[in-house]
Write a structure and sequence with these properties.
By secondary structure, the protein is mainly alpha-helical. The chain contains ten helices and three strands. A three-stranded antiparallel β-sheet has the order 1-2-3. α2 packs antiparallel against α3 and α8 crosses α10. The longest helix is centred in the C-terminal third of the chain and has 22 residues. The two termini are 43 Å apart.
């Protein structure tokens, strides 16, 4: 339909046709795709599966706790620098789309995991590299890539026995937002935490929580059925 509309508009503009018979046609609106949020128990299973005493395991746990605990985009997480962290205050400065930055809280679990990684793992990983200020390093001491972060999550999901096809780094961000709203957070607050320019973008998560409310109502109310 888009191609047909474009062709007729072109024909009129170039003088090849006297009028545009497609100008009154309104393209259909595609259905809104809801975010895929995991249950809290599934998130916890993934985080447990990423644990371990080895440097790379400490990094993996810290990364996944950080993603879920801050709602950061994957690019924001792998791009975060040591100076962006203030673990004593429990905050991190995330650098998002369009050069915009936002200060978000780091939850207690994420703070503990990141502190353990910074003390017990990052110095060892850094020795293999040429020096970089980013928080999360790869095995060669360089900055962790988005693709590597994706692999870390997929492997943890596999070990947790979850379907990898429905899980991506953005799934943790979707789950972060959905769980905040399920817990009673205001949509405007969630908008700021996610770094959305418009609250309209954030409101798609409220559709997920309405489904959750219906589910709870249907199972809990004596006359729901």
């Amino acid at each position: 339909m888009s191609a047909v509309r474009g062709l007729h508009k072109f024909a009129v503009r170039e003088g090849l046709a006297p009028d545009d018979p497609a100008r009154e046609i309104v393209p259909p609106t595609p259905p809104r795709r809801l975010p895929k949020a995991l249950a809290v128990e599934e998130i916890e299973a993934i985080l447990r599966a990423a644990g371990g005493p080895e440097p790379l395991a400490l990094r993996d746990r810290a990364l996944l706790e950080f993603l879920y605990g801050t709602g950061a985009r994957i690019s924001e997480a792998v791009g975060a620098a040591i100076d962006d962290l203030d673990l004593s205050d429990g905050t991190v400065l995330l650098h998002g789309k369009g050069g915009k930055s936002r200060l978000v809280p780091v939850g207690g679990y994420a703070r503990t995991a990141v502190e353990a990684y910074l003390v017990r793992a990052r110095p060892e990983l850094a020795r293999a590299g040429r020096g970089t200020s980013v928080v999360f390093l790869n095995a060669r001491g360089g900055p962790l890539s988005r693709q590597s972060a994706w692999t870390i999550l997929r492997r943890a999901a596999e070990r947790a026995g979850l379907d990898q096809a429905r899980i991506s780094p953005h799934t943790l961000r979707h789950s972060y937002a959905t769980h905040l709203l399920d817990g009673g957070a205001d949509v405007r607050v969630v908008q700021e935490l996610l770094g959305h320019a418009s609250v309209t973008t954030t409101q798609v998560y409220t559709l997920v929580t309405v489904d959750r409310l219906r589910e709870v109502y249907a199972t809990a109310h004596p006359r729901a059925r």
